[in-house]
Amino acid sequence: MIKSHIYSVGSELAKTVVATRDILEEARFDDCELVQKSLGIYEVRQAPDSFQPSDLAVPAAEKALRASGLAYAAIDAVIYCGIERDCPEPATAHIIASKLGLTPSICFDVANACHGFTSGLQVANSFIKSGDIRHVLVVTAELSSKVTRRVAQMFRDGELTAADIKTHIGAFTVGDAAGAMILGPADASKGINQIRCGSISRHHSLCSYNNNHGKLSFSMDMGRISVATLKLVKDLIGPTYKDLNWCPDDIDLFIPHQVGERPFLKALEIVGVKQEKSIATYPRLGNLASATIPVCYDMLKQQGRLLPGSKMLMASSGSGIVASFVGLSL
C-alpha cells in the first residue's frame, strides 16, 4: 500500500517584530493590553506592506526543497494554500513555481481559510496514494498584517468604534509567515495514516473577510467561532483515535491550530495530551492562519523533536467552519 510521507519542511517568518500592545495603541484602543490579557499573544511578525504572498512563500519552499534532497525536476505538483493570493488570476502556485524554477505538471491553488494548508495536504495525500503523482510541494503564505493595518486605520478614523471591538479584535492577533512541505511516497511503516475532516457550513458568517477592489470588510466573533470549532474538534477526536487505533498516551507530538491561549489549552484537553508534547507559537507569533501547521512542524524539527517512529497528531481548523485531524508516523 502506498502512503504519503512528509519528506521535508521549510518556513519563513516575517522579519519585523511588533508588540500587540503597540498595534492597539496605534489603533487608539483604551486598553492596549487587551490581546495580551485575553489571548496571551504578546507580539507578532509583520512583512512590508509591499510584499505579495509569493515573496514569503518562495524562501520557505526553497528551504523545503533543499532539505528534501530531491532534484527540482522531481516535483510533479505545486499546491498553494494561502488565504491571500498574489492575484486572482493566474493561480499563485504558478507564480511560485516559476520563481523557483520548477516545471510541475500540476499546479493550482487551494483555499480554505486557516485550514488551507491541511486541505492542501489532503489533496497531496490523495494524489500520492493514487500512484499518479510522486512528489508534491504544498506551500502557503499569510500576510495578515495587511488586514491589521487597515482595521487599525478604521479605528483611528472613527469608521469603527468601541462597539466593533468584539467582532474585529481578531485582526490584531495575526502574524505573517510562510510554510512549505514536500510530500512523497513511503512504505507502510511511516507517513500519513489518516486525515479525518469535518465541516459545519452554517457557521460561515462567524468569520468573514473580503477585499473587493481595495474595499476591506472583516468580522470575526472569536467567542462563538471558538466554541463551535472546539465542539467540532471534540466530535472528531473519538473517531480519529478509533480509526488510528491510538489512544492519548500513544501521541508523542501534537500540533494544534493556534489562535490564543485558551483555545490552545482546550485543544490539549480535548485530545488528552500534556503541554510538553506540543509547541506553543501563539505568544510570540500570534495566529499564523494556514501557516501554523508547517511553521510548528519546522520548529519541532529545529528543536530535534521529530524522532523516527514517533506518532504525531495535527489539529487544523478554519472559518466556515472546518476542522480536521491528521495522524502520522514519523
Give descriptors for this structure.
single chain; 330 residues; alpha/beta; Peroxisomal Thiolase, Chain A, domain 1; 2 domains; 4-stranded mixed sheet; 11 helices
List the helices and strands and how they pair.
Blueprint lengths: L2 E11 L2 E4 H7 L7 H6 L3 E4 L6 H16 L8 E4 L11 H9 L5 E4 L6 H15 L5 E7 L2 H12 L8 H4 L8 E10 L4 E9 L7 E6 L2 E6 L1 H23 L8 E4 L4 H11 L10 H4 L6 H11 L8 E8 L3 E8 L1
Parallel strand pairs: 4-5, 4-6, 11-12
Antiparallel strand pairs: 1-7, 2-3, 6-7, 8-13, 9-10, 12-13
Helix pairs in contact: 3-4, 8-9
Question: Could you characterize the architecture of this molecule?
Answer:
By secondary structure, this protein is α/β, with parallel strands linked by helices. The protein is built from eleven helices and 13 strands. It has helices at 20-26, 34-39, 53-68, 92-100, 116-130, 145-156, 165-168, 222-244, 261-271, 282-285, 292-302; strands at residues 3-13, 16-19, 43-46, 77-80, 106-109, 136-142, 177-186, 191-199, 207-212, 215-220, 253-256, 311-318, 322-329. The longest helix has 23 residues, at 222-244.
What share of residues is helical? 25-40%
Level-2 CATH architecture of the largest domain: 3-Layer(aba) Sandwich
In terms of per-residue confidence, which ranges show pLDDT below 50 for 5 or more consecutive residues? none
SSE sequence, one letter per element: EEHHEHEHEHEHHEEEEHEHHHEE
The Rg value, from CA coordinates, equals 19 Å
Secondary structure: number of strands:
13
Strand order across the largest sheet: 1-7-6-4-5
Q: How would you sum up the global shape?
A: globular
Terminal residue distance: 17 Å
- Structure annotation, total helices: 11
Structural class: alpha/beta
- Counting structural domains, the number is 2
Question: Sheet with the most strands?
Answer: 5 strands, mixed
Mean pLDDT over the residues: 95
Please state the oligomeric state of the protein chains shown. single chain
Sheet-strand content, in percent, reads 25-35%
CATH class of the largest domain: Alpha Beta
